[in-house]
Amino acid sequence: MEIAVCRAADVALLDQYIGSPGAVSTHARRFARQGAGGGVYLVAWLEDRPVGHAEVIWDGCAAPEVRAALPGCPELNGLAVWPPRLRSRGIGGALIRCAEELAREHGRTALGLGVAADNPRAADLYARLGYRRLTDYVDHWSYEDHDGVTRECVDPCTFLTKDLASGTLDVKQP
Q1: Domain residue spans of the chain
Q2: pTM
Q3: Which end of the chain is more exposed for a tag (fewer CB within 10 A), N or C?
Q4: What DSSP assignment string belongs to 67-121?
Q5: pLDDT per residue over 43-73, tens digit each?
Q6: Each residue's pLDDT tens digit, 128-151
Q7: Cα 140 to chain center, whole Å?
Q8: pLDDT, tens digit, for every residue of 24-38?
Q9: What is the DSSP string of 52-75?
């Protein structure tokens, strides 16, 4: 397996092998943010096929609760491994470690990520890798479906953080 920064030619392959909801490609939006300097979009490759992705968003999580609790913390977003039979084989962990290294190289001292309340498997992975609870929040996102209808999504989440120097981040809870 290899992890590389997304290139323009990779977007079509991501759409083909790891689809995204809606009429507008999530992969294209992430690649565009990367091109504008707002983040880095990582792709995990197995032979010539994308099998996972994750994005480091330099501005961090949009949720006000997260921004207030830890201003300036970049966010690891959109971590996925596909197809499901490839999960629990180290691909997600490798993407996370690569994202952590990128954040360090950019002078960042912490990295955070959100985990949905209904995703205990991911929460277990993040805990094993040293991520700790910062705050609960509600993630709001939307996409335009193939019929042109905007779909609003709401997910109860917990934002987790890791100190990139020591491995954990101790933040006092209010």
Answers
A1: 2-163
A2: 0.89
A3: C
A4: HHHSTT--EEEEEEESSGGGTTSSHHHHHHHHHHHHHHHTT-SEEEEEEETT-HH
A5: 999 999 999 999 999 999 999 999 999 999 9
A6: 999 999 999 999 888 777 788 888
A7: 15
A8: 788 999 999 999 999
A9: EEEEEETT----HHHHHHSTT--E
